[in-house]
Amino acid sequence: MGRLRLDTLVRLRWLAVAGQTASILLVRYGFGFTLPLLPCFAVILALVAANLASRYVFPATMRLSGRMALAYLGFDIAQLAALLYLTGGLGNPFAFLFLVPVMVSASSLHPAQTLLLGCLTLVAAAVIGIWHLPLPWSPGEVYRPATLFVLGAWFSLAASMVFMGLHVSRIARESQQLSDALTATELALVHEQHLSQLDGLAAAAAHELGTPLATIALIAKDLEGDPALKADHGEDIALLREQILRCRDIMSKLTSLGASDNEPFHRLTLSHLLENIVEPHRHFGVQVTVECRGSGPEPVGRRDPAILYGLGNLIENAIDFAHDTVRIDARWSERQISVLIIDDGPGIRADIMTRLGEPYVSGRSQDSGGLGLGFFIAKRLLERSGGRIALANRPPPDHGAQLKIDWMRADFEKDEITSTYANA
Fold it and tell me: How far is it, in rounded angstroms, from Cα 45 to Cα 6?
C-alpha cells in the first residue's frame, strides 16, 4: 500500500533496542540470573546495524513498498526469535512481543502480507518453543517450563495474533475508507461552491469590461461622424457599433447573475429551492410532486451549496429507485423545517438499513458501478448545514423508502454559507 514510513519503523526499532538492552541488564545484574551476555548483545547489535543502515541508505521520509516493509518486519521477527532462543524460548514472558510486528503490518500492509508475516511468526515461535537455551534463572538452578505450558503459550500467541490482527486491520481499513470518503465530500462541496460563485465572477468580469467597452463605443461614434471614413468604411463601422451593442447586452445579463446577497438569486424560499432542485429530474419517467405548507411566513434561505448538493443527491436517489412516483413534502413552523422525500420503490434492504450513511455502503447492485459514496456525501453535507436525517421504509401495505430532513429554522435561514472545512 505504500503507507508505512521508514522513519516510523526506525523509531520502533530504536525503542526495541533500548527495551532489549535494559531487560538483559536488569535480568543479569538486577536479579543476578545467568544468561549468555555476549550472544545476546551480538543479536541486539545486529538490530542496531540494520537500523543504522536503513537510516543512512534510505531517506527517512521514504514510504516502503509492501515487499520492503514485509522484509523489514520479517527481519525484526527473526531478531526477536534469536534473542528469545538465547533466553528461554516461549517460556520467556517477553515472547508476547512477537505480536508487535504483526500489529504494525495489520495496520499498514495488505492482508495477504500480514497473513504471511503471521505464519512466519508462528513458525519462529514453534521453533524456539522446541529448541532453545534454558530460561535465565538463579545460579545452579535450571527452570524448564512444562511442555503443556509451552504448547499453551504457542496457541495463546496464535489466537492473540489472529484476533488482534483482524481487529487492527479492520479499524485501519475503516479509517482509510472514512478518510477517502471525507475527501470526496470536500471535493463535492468545493465543486458546488465553485458553481455558485460563477455568477459573482461573471458580474466582476462584466464590471471590469464595462470601461474599455465604453471607450470603444466612444471611438466608434467618433469614427462614424467622420464623413471620409464613413464613405470608405461605413459598413465596418456599422458592424462595430452592432457588436458593441451586443457586448453590452451580454454584460447586462452577466451583471444580473452577480446580484448582491439581497437579490432573489441568492436567497430563495423553501418552495423555490425545492423546485430548482427537482426541475432537472422531471423528465426521467417518474412523476415528482412537491407540496409545501406550514404555519407562518415561508422560510427563506441562501443558495447554500451543501443543501443544494445534498438534497439533489437524495432526490436523485429516490427517483432512481422509484417505480412511478416520488413525493416531496415540505413543512415548516416558527422554529423548525422538515422535508420528507417518499418514493414507491422497493425500499431499503434490511441488511444495510442500519449502515446506510457510512462510506462505501450502497443499496445499488455491484454491477451499477457506484462507489457507495453518494448518500454518505449528501448526509455529511446536510448535517453540516444543520440538518438531521432519518430514514425508514414505508409501513405496509405501502412500499418504498421515506427520508426526512429536519432543520432548525434559524440554521436554514442563516446568512453564512456552510464552510468547506467546517466540522471536518
Answer: 19
